[in-house]
Amino acid sequence: MAAPRRKAGGQRKPKPPGPPPEPPQIDLGGSDGGGTSDGTSGGGGTSAEPEPKTFAEKAAKRAQKKKNVVRSYILALKARDIPLGPFRKLLIHAAKTGQTIPEFLTEVGLSKKFNKMFPGIQALAESLGAEVSADLVGTYKEAVLAYQKAAKDAGISLGLGKSQIAILLRGDVSPVEFADRLQAFGALQANASSLEALNDAAAQVGLGKLDINGQLKFLMGLGAKDYYDLYESLFFAQKGFDTDTARALGQAVGLIGKPTDALAALPDAVAALEGVAGQEFKQSGVTRPDLYLAALVASGESISDPALAERARKAREAVEQQLKNRQARLAARQAIQTQRPGRPLLPGARAEELATV
User: Fold this and answer.
1) pTM for this entry
2) DSSP of 191-215, one letter per residue?
3) How far apart, in whole angstroms, are the C-alpha atoms of residue 77 and residue 25?
């Protein structure tokens, strides 16, 4: 039988009402980056990564976050040209404790492996007034290059290795000062007889020979006092002093820390004195050792031995008196020369001497 028809003008039965619509979300500024609750920014930005819902998704996000942190530590080391291998344990510890990059780099800098890898970096940090950190590696390497360049420019093959670099840094010797002292170091190496004599004298008193590190320490003022005394004694013995006086001078003069610098200047000073008034010194009994004593005192060095200090004082007075006498004779001869042209000047007189009269 056919279904009954609807009446004309009839309406369908209405569907039951659905759930009420969600109220609009209002941004109260509590979400990260000022965005709305759906992860989009109020300014029309791109959508953020959806929040993980399942346990697996949350675990994966934690693992990724940890991986990113570890990667940041690795990149921090790589940026400073520091190998990862020796510091893996520190890296793992930093990741577990949530250290910041600066904290991690400080931990690396304080480790024994780091200080062995960059010997002397702690002394460099102290000289700069900074904390020991992996951040100093760049400054450390710049100093190493500066030392190596100074040696190369001076034409001296030192083969500066880690131990030599450490000597320089711990001695607070700047690359500029190192370049200045390399000249004296070259003279020490070139004068094999002096170095051999020093090592022989050291052996006689029970000291070891100076190897390349020993020579470097000696030059930088970091050697044992006995080596300086020996070197100074040999120096004065070569300049005409008797053995006992030379040994006493080596122990009495205050040249510790800069032996080659101070002593190297004395021969030139004595040569200058002899060039001006050598004849007068001979005639008055001023000896070459006296000239060295006078030059030593004039350089500002002190002599601790009272008897030697008194001898040096008298030597300087005698030298100064002879120089004054010569100037007086030059002045008198110049006065005569102006009245009687053609009369010869004092033998050996130079024009620059007359200019100072």
Assistant:
1) 0.48
2) -HHHHHHHHHHHHHTTPPP--HHHH
3) 45
344: number of Cβ within 10 Å: 8
Q: Which helix (H) or strand (E) holds 83?
A: none
The amino acid at 215: Q
Where exactly are the structural domains of the chain? 58-113, 242-357
* pLDDT tens across the length of the chain (357 residues): 444 444 444 445 444 444 444 433 333 333 344 443 333 334 444 456 677 667 676 667 766 777 888 888 899 899 888 998 899 999 888 888 888 989 999 899 889 999 889 988 988 888 888 888 888 898 999 988 988 888 888 777 666 778 888 888 887 778 877 877 776 666 666 655 667 777 888 888 788 887 777 777 776 666 777 777 887 787 788 788 887 888 787 777 755 445 445 666 777 888 888 888 888 888 888 888 888 888 887 877 777 778 888 888 888 888 888 888 888 888 887 777 666 555 554 445 444 443 443
What token pair was written down for 175? 């690359």
Contact 136, 109 (CB under 8 A): yes
Tokens linked to 212: 């390349």
